[in-house]
Amino acid sequence: MSDPVIQICGLSVAYGNQLAVRDVSVDIPARQITAIIGPSGCGKTTLLRSMSRLVELVEGVRVWGQVLFHGQNIYDPRVDVTEIRKRIGLLAQRPFPLPMSIYENVAYGPRVHGLRDRKALHAIVEKELRAAGLWDEVKDRLHAPASVLSVGQQQRLCLARGLAVEPEVLLCDEVTSALDPISGQRIEARLLELKADYTIVQVTHVLRQARRLADYVVFMYLGELIEHGPADQVFHNPREAKTRAYLEGEFY
Amino acid sequence: MGKHLEERIFIGLMVASMVIVVGSLVFILATVVVRGLPALSLAMLTQVPRGGYYLGKEGGILNAITGSLALASGATLLSFFLSLPVAFYLQLFTKDARFVHLARLSLDVLWGVPSIVYGAFGFTLMLLLGLRASLLGGIIALALLELPILVRAIEEVMTMVPFELKESSYALGATRLETALRVVVRQTAPGLLTALLLAFGRGIGDAASVLFTAGYTDRLPTSLLRPVASLPLAVFFQLGTPVPEVRERAYASALVLTVIVLIISLSARLLTRRLTRHVVR
Question: Which of A50, B45, B174, B266 has the smallest count of CB within 10 Å of its CB?
Answer without folding.
Answer: B266
